[in-house]
């Protein structure tokens, strides 16, 4: 089970959270302006990386707020958590070096 | 290929069993093949077998990062059934089930296909209505599936608890008698041996690191940890790692990879006659021929490539098993493990051409790909050989997500996948 650090409540067990899928996928501002391909990309296509993955979690049984987690999908190590709306931190999978 | 039979067993016994040959070679990769299959699991090996057997394409390499059958083929709970709701799915899984019925003979290899019946339990009114709808839809498609009352379920599978004191009592079940199990390792080994006998090279410990394309975008071959291998056609059958392999050709797919867990108990005497599944309280259970209870748990909440998941997922399933089959409460679990499954948004697979000429993909089987192994390999081989889909897999494209023609087993299913 993951130990997830909620940016608002601190470290809590995974059971308190619900998963919200890949982060930083913005809903198109003008959906009617999109063609089918672009709409399908927004709805369905995911990067699904083997490595660092930015994802949304919600502290369902806590503060109830959405936030973002940067997790290594090979080891499940959580590298960083940060509030929704913030940019993805530029970290490597050990959480130390800044990536260029 | 050395043929297996009662006679050959007798003959080899006279020679002290010293005359058995290796079941497949371990060749060095050649410079060029007609077709390269990425992934030596059940689906990839079946594809190679049918390419050679039905389409006469024998210059085929199956390249595998690890070892043969070491991924989800060796990690699943070996359940076979075809009672899916939609016509497209029913056709695909029934195609596979028909191949299962003659597979041991086709491969001259005992895959231990055991049609012992798959019983799917209903626990509430919605389940009952939904399963009955499945039964009728299946009958229209010529697929056996029948409704059993709770008492009939108990008669078919005596260890079940149908008492009213359960939190989720058993109200009945849908039974597919032709469903059952097979020996998962033997499926991979049987396909490998049969494909190898027709000249297919199975190359283990050979990780694909890139897909080389010509200036017009068509596939030229794959870069691997054992050097470049040329081929005009590449079929990817890499399960949970499909997104990783396809990204090497710049193709982004509607897939997410999740850990799926399973566990087995200590071996006991024959005690459980069929496969029982319950989607509502999440349990799958059957007994292997070794005597272990084989139990399927659910997927973890998050995407991962770690091949392990959290304990609460497995223990949730055990709660359900203990409620359904009280006599297993004192059974000890021997080991548990995880595999990485690639899940599509509609929970139906993709068996199709990709936007890249010469690149084909067979993926998205999610949590239920084992049952489809022969059928999947069969139609994928057709798709690669003829550069167009077989009519059975024609609906299972990548473009269905763009065009909104989903095969939405995710919503329709009172079934687990």
Task: Report on the architecture of this protein.
Chain A is mainly beta and 100 residues long. Chain A contains one helix and six strands. In chain A, strand 5 and strand 6 form a beta hairpin. The termini of chain A are far apart. Chain B has 417 residues and is of the alpha/beta class. The radius of gyration of chain B is 21 Å and the shape is globular. In chain B, strand 9 and strand 10 form a beta hairpin. In chain B, the strands form four sheets. An eight-stranded mixed beta sheet of chain B has the order 5-6-4-14-15-16-13-17. In chain B, strands 8-2-1-12-19-18 form a six-stranded mixed beta sheet. In chain B, strands 9-10-11 form a three-stranded antiparallel beta sheet, with no helix packed on it. Classes of the chains: A mainly beta (100), B alpha/beta (417). At the A-B interface, strand 3 and helix 1 of A face helix 11 of B.
